[in-house]
Structures are given as C-alpha cells and as structure tokens.
Amino acid sequence: MPIKTEEGKTPNGHLCMRALVSGHVSLADAEAMSAQLRKGQHFHGVRVLCLVEKSTEYSAEARKHFGSMHGNYLRMATVVTSAFLRASINFMTRLFGHREDFRLFNTEAEAQAWLDQS
Amino acid sequence: MTIPVARQRLQNLIQVMAQATLGDYDVRIEGLADRQDDELLELEVALNILLEELQLTRQHNLAQRQEIEESARQLHSKQEDLVRVLSTPIIVVAKGVLAMPIIGAVEAERAQTMTECMLERVASERATHIILDLTGAGTIARATAQALFRMAQAVRLLGSQCILTGISPDMARTLVEIDFDSTNIMTLPNLAEALNHVLGKHSRSRRIPS
Q: Which of A39, A78, B124, B126 is deepest in the core (most CB within 10 A)?
C-alpha cells in the first residue's frame, strides 16, 4: 500500500496521524488517506506527520487531490529527504495556494517539534 | 538575489519548452531524481508536471473527439435509414397488393434505393401487384423515366404485375421519347382505378366456379 496510516503521538503527547508514503501513489490511495481525515472520522482535526520515501511518485490525479485535505487537519508536517520530491511537493502545494498549516522538513525531529508548537 | 545556474541546465529547460511548443508533450527534463536541492529544481519539476498535464488533456480530448465522431457516424447512419424509409413509402393496400406513391424528383441514387426496397417488399409480401403512383412526382427527367422502366421490369421478373398510375401529359411525352415499352406494364389514370382493377381481379379469382 503506497500510503500506510497509523496512530501516533507527538513528543508532547498529542494525537497524530502518521502516514508512511512510498511507491506509486494513485488517486485511490490519496482518497483513502483523505477519507480518514474527514469530519466524523478518528483523525479529523489532528496533527499529521507524513514520511515520504525517496521511491515515491504521485500520479497526476493524486497531485490534484491532496489540496482537498486542507481544513480537515490541524497541521501537516511532511518529512522528505529527496531534493526532487521536495521540489515536487512544494509545487503541488502551489496548486492550492500558500498554506500556513503545511510545511516540509528534512528530519522527523524537526517535523515533530513544529507539530507540537500549535 | 542571483542564482548561479549551469548554462547547460538552462539550455535543457529552453529546449524542452521549444519542443513542447511544437506539440511534443512527451518530452521531459531528465535526471531530476538525483539532483541536489537548488532554486532551479522546482522550476524543472514544475515544467515536467505541466507537460504531463498537457499530455493527459490531449489524450482526454482525443478520446472525446473519437467518441463524438462515432456518435456522429451512428447518427448519420440512422438518418440515412430514416431518409430511405421516408422516401420509399410502400403501403400494403390489400393482401398481395402494394402501392408506392412517388413524390418529388427521382435521381439515380434514389431510384436504386426505391428499386431495392420495392423488390424486397414484393418478395417478402409475395405481392401479385404493385401500383406505382406518379401523381406527386412532378416533371420527370429522362433518367428518371428510364429508372421507372427498369423498376417495372424488375418487378415483372419477380412474377408481379406493375401498374403505373397518375401519369401526367408531360410524363407521357417523356416516356414516349425513351421508347417506353408498356407491353408488360399496365397504366391506369389514378390510384383508385388501379385499386378497383386489382381488387376486382382478386375477388373474381376467389369465386368458386359453379
């Protein structure tokens, strides 16, 4: 499964959704993740930590879908070590306008620290 | 702020944009996965994503166009069938008796269609008589007259009697000009007379001789 989600906790004990992303991400995969963030679902309104592996590729449809998650989470921190993926995700976020609730990081520790700030 | 960029990368970027301008949306900037992070990388990634979107849109448009063309073909075919049916009305006036009113001009293609339809119906209905009513045909050209003659001959070969009705004086002149041989083709003034003739024959043929 390209996007594996699980429950986690930030260093300060806040509930968060951990999403491990790898391989080819289709629209169906993106929709499955966003469905878990919808109102009434367990992860609605929580902090989200995405860990994106180097092998990840997003389909054209999946790229356009991620913007629909905005408003269903408190903050989303995405950890990506590949320069290419960082540039891709940066561009993807531009498709939906600049967001204060989304940020990219090089390490998980930095990402967790930012999630705990809110 | 100035960004130091290798000339080759800029040239590649411009080359890809030039190819895309000419309609080549398959082209991409290669080797981005192994690049180091710098300001130009996002531009290169963005261009590749844009080209992918253009390619998908083109494929979608092509598929839609093919769908539209197929629908148009089917519609045209249905239209042709409808025109064929409407331009060759064949009425069963009694068992074994067909009537076909001919309205408007009869050019070669229509004559062929009419002949095909007529012969099919004569055979399927086992018609003994077919009445071709020319009251609505207007002026007929020589070619039309010849087509009518061929129609009547074809019907005769199926063992059916062809009766022409509603021939106007102008039509009569044209038929004479083409040496219309009416030996095996009956002509009567109008449809009513033709029906009286045919139905009268039918009722006489059913009489049991004493």
A: A78
